[in-house]
Design a protein that fits this description.
This protein is an all-alpha fold. The chain has one domain. The protein is 78% helix and 0% strand. The chain has three helices and no strands. Helix 1 crosses helix 2. The radius of gyration is 15 Å and the shape is elongated. This is DUF4229 domain-containing protein. Keywords: Membrane, Transmembrane, Transmembrane helix.
Length: 68
Amino acid sequence: MRVQLPYFAARIAALLVMLTILLILSVNPLLAILAGLVIVGVLTYPLGRLQRRAAQQAAGRAGVGAGR
């Protein structure tokens, strides 16, 4: 789980930056949250794959769930 933390932090930081930009542009807050989640999800998809791979490698080293 500790291996995933940097990737998770980078994705949260990207979401906060996107929300800030959308709110500065005077977008409705609810729409900004929804659009921010979609945009950041698309932009950080490769980062999510790296996060998943790092978790699988860490689980493999620990001998837990390596077959997934």
